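Re: the 69-residue chain
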Amino acid sequence: MNYRCLRAFLLVSLGLVLVSCSITRVKWRIKWDKDMEKSKAAFMSAPLPAETQRQPNIILLVADDLGPK
């Protein structure tokens, strides 16, 4: 029974530590800059430069299982 109480205490303590170290604190929140909206709109509406030669989109996926087999 003593081991059970110790285990429960450790789990609750670990949970409290993880909740207190949350990344949702005020210092990690995104701050929106109202003045940047105009420059964002100008950037997004600007025409794209013409591409002389488009490179192909190639994705190479390599997987290797170095298991016991």
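The chain has two helices and no strands.
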